[in-house]
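User: Here's a structure from my thesis project, written as structure tokens. My advisor, Dr. K., wants to see whether a designed sequence matches the one we expressed. Can you design one independently, without my sequence as a hint?
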């Protein structure tokens, strides 16, 4: 966080075996890419695996390779990338076309053993010989395996940016599969309210989805309903469209903190350029410590010179002010290189250009969404799943037969149908025992949900007093609501100084409420770039929060980040 607090200040070896599998008679050099550079040494952790060749392995060796692939898939949460023709040191030695065909056949058999799909991302020539036998090639292969207890892999992407930057239009093109007419037709499907259609401004949070099948083909609403997308897809991407106007900043921040996206797509209009307001919003997105992707839209409206200037300004700002490593992505090879290195270079920010009217750059954005992976490590995911369940309520729906549907994020733990939980806190700080009736994920019924998944739950009964910001928790947690909590904060920007009595809106997960600073420990006032431990009090009603939760506070131009360090539970008898 140190690097962000000033952003808003205005001033293996060869495989044994001599024989090969039978070569496909149609195999030739067509479709092979150009020569490429060596790779860094093979990482010990993660989902990247180097193999020189996989030619006719023994049965024992084959079983070992399958176990190794399963481990790499686990590291990549169901996805792994194999580099064939590459030594462990990263040297692109290359193998013959015949050995490559045999290696790919072995890789497909390994994937079949695990129930995984195998698709070649690209093949490249490293030594072009006179004959096909003397030519040396390398290949990059994507392995994908959907967990047995999940219908598909899941990725959540929040789309953020200034008003009129083309966020909703871009999402409309991706989800509907049709280009925009230049007058905003594509974005109409994204709007939820009449005033949004009339003004062209998003004021609420909308959720849309696209999917990718085992061959990497995009599945959107051209294929049918959301149920169809889920049925046909091995990977589902939830796209969260956020408001861009400063009037709706509170709604935008709630969408980011409440839905915990894996990535933020920050959209900038090439026609507007890189303005001061856009800089402030980009700095805020960078400070949220969520993986960032910058998409520059409306490239068809500007000259190539102006587009290049905007890209250069964005990259300089990201590198110089936000302390990120930014680089431009212009083709599929760039996308693959980014995805391969994203876990080792977490500060990398790709910058893409797109036109929703001509479709230029659309294939690059689609490929990036196809290959991107959630940032959680397997150890983090296992730790979260072992904890007692906590489900954050972000949406509440009522349907006939007096059934209540709750939508949100399962922050930790595992829940199943008929799992007993506690619902609250209500306005008096109490929790009510409830039982889960049904569970849906991506609008498809499921029997179990795990930490980090966005789901909807049916309680099967009508309950009064429900509100967004409540939680469903395990009775073993013995949850208690609180008015007071302590947090270590950093002030990103404030025009003067913050003192005792200052009121601000605080976002903690799905909680969004006005708070009052009751005490600033050790000092009397804090200003831009200052750090302090602060005691907050919720103004309206008690909330359920946990120590270690990240918080974001804002009031007008005032912005800050922090972490909850202590919570002071209330006793029901002592409620005001």
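Assistant: Designed independently from the structure alone:
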């Amino acid at each position: 966080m140190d690097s962000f607090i000033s952003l808003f200040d205005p001033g293996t070896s060869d495989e044994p075996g001599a024989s090969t599998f039978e070569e496909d008679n149609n195999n030739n050099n067509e479709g092979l890419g150009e020569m490429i550079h060596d790779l860094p040494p093979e990482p010990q952790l993660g989902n990247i695996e180097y193999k020189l060749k996989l030619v006719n392995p023994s049965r024992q060796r084959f079983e070992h390779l399958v176990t190794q692939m399963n481990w790499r898939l686990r590291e990549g949460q169901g996805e792994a990338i194999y580099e064939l023709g590459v030594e462990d040191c990263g040297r692109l030695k290359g193998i013959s076309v015949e050995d490559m065909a045999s290696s790919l056949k072995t890789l497909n058999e390994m994937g079949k053993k695990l129930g995984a799909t195998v698709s070649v991302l690209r093949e490249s020539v490293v030594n072009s010989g006179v004959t096909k036998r003397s030519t040396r090639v390398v290949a990059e292969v994507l392995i994908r395996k959907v967990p047995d207890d999940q219908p598909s892999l899941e990725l959540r992407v929040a789309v953020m940016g200034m008003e009129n930057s083309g966020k909703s239009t871009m999402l409309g093109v991706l989800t509907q599969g049709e280009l925009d007419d230049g007058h905003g037709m594509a974005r109409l499907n994204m709007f939820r309210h009449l005033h949004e259609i009339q003004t062209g401004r998003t004021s609420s949070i909308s959720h849309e989805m696209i999917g990718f099948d085992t061959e990497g083909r995009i599945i959107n609403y051209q294929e049918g309903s959301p149920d169809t997308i889920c049925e046909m897809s091995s990977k589902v991407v939830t796209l969260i469209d956020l408001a861009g106007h400063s009037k709706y900043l509170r709604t935008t921040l709630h969408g980011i903190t409440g839905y915990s996206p894996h990535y933020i797509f920050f959209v900038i209009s090439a026609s507007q350029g890189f303005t001061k307001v856009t800089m402030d919003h980009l700095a805020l997105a960078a400070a949220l410590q969520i993986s960032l992707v910058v998409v520059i839209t409306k490239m068809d409206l500007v000259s190539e010179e102006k587009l290049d200037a905007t890209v250069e300004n964005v990259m300089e700002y990201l590198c110089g002010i936000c302390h990120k490593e930014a680089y431009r992505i212009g083709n599929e090879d760039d996308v693959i290189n980014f995805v391969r290195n994203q876990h080792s270079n977490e500060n990398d920010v790709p910058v893409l250009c797109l036109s929703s009217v001509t479709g230029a750059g659309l294939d690059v954005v689609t490929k990036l969404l196809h290959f991107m992976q959630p940032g959680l490590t397997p150890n983090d995911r296992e730790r979260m799943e072992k904890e007692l369940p906590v489900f954050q309520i972000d949406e509440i729906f009522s349907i006939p037969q007096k059934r209540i549907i709750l939508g949100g994020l399962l922050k930790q733990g595992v829940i199943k149908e008929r799992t007993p939980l506690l619902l609250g806190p209500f306005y008096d700080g109490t929790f009510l025992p409830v039982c889960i009736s049904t569970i849906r994920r991506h609008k498809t019924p499921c029997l179990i949900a795990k930490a980090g998944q966005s789901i909807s739950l049916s309680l099967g009964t009508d309950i009064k007093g429900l509100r967004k910001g409540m939680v469903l928790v395990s009775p073993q947690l013995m949850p208690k609501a609180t008015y007071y909590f302590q947090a270590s904060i950093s002030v990103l920007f404030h025009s003067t100084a913050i003192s005792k009595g200052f009121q601000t809106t605080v976002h903690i997960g799905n909680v969004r409420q006005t708070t009052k600073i009751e005490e600033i420990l050790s000092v009397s006032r804090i200003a831009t770039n200052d750090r302090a431990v602060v005691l907050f009090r919720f103004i309206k009603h008690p909330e359920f929060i946990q120590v270690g939760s990240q918080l974001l506070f804002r009031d007008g131009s005032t912005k800050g980040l922090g972490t909850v360090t202590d919570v002071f539970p209330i006793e029901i008898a002592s409620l005001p």
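When you compare it with your expressed construct, this may help: Confidence is low (pLDDT under 50) at residues 1-35.
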